[in-house]
Amino acid sequence: MSTIDYSKSTNTFPTLLIVALVGFVLLGIGGITIMNAIDIQTNTHAVDKHGEIEVAAIRDCIQKNGPFQVWRDKINKKKYFLCAELKEGCEYGIQIVVENDDCELIEKSAFMRDNPTWNELRNYLSKFSDRWKGFTH
């Protein structure tokens, strides 16, 4: 009769459990990232009026990071101003979108103010819009 020396055997269960948990966490983070992506139909006005480099930077920032803040027009409740933090703490842009009857977001424009600071952009937005925190139930 042979005996097995279990003292030298390696229990892989804790390792597999850790790998599985890390996988679920990464999947969860990936899922959150995917959900942050905003599907916006762009138009040529933004590029024609404000330039390809500026508009592309704002669009890319919002798609990758989500909006820094969202503001909504005081009169047209389907018009939103998506704020992009292009350079942390010092440079901000804005993408203006309108929600159509099919709940799709259509870009109206994207640009940076002459003075692209957060205080300047917030003061500009507060003249005709309010900070929007999403739907409440």
Overview of this structure, please?
α2 (44-50) packs across α3. The protein is an alpha+beta fold. The protein has a domain at 39-131. The protein has helices at residues 13-36, 44-50, 52-65, 118-126, and strands at residues 40-41, 69-73, 79-87, 91-99, 105-111, 129-131. Helices cover 39% and strands 26% of the residues. The longest helix has 24 residues, at 13-36. The protein has a six-stranded mixed beta sheet.
**Residue ranges: pLDDT <50 for 5 or more in a row?**
11-36
Structural class: alpha+beta
Number of extended strands:
6
Order of SSEs, N→C?
HEHHEEEEHE
In short:
The chain contains four helices and six strands; from the N terminus they run αβααββββαβ. It has 137 residues and is an alpha+beta fold.
Features:
6 strands; alpha+beta; 26% strand; 6-stranded mixed β-sheet; 137 residues
Helices and strands in order:
Layout: H1 13-36, E1 40-41, H2 44-50, H3 52-65, E2 69-73, E3 79-87, E4 91-99, E5 105-111, H4 118-126, E6 129-131
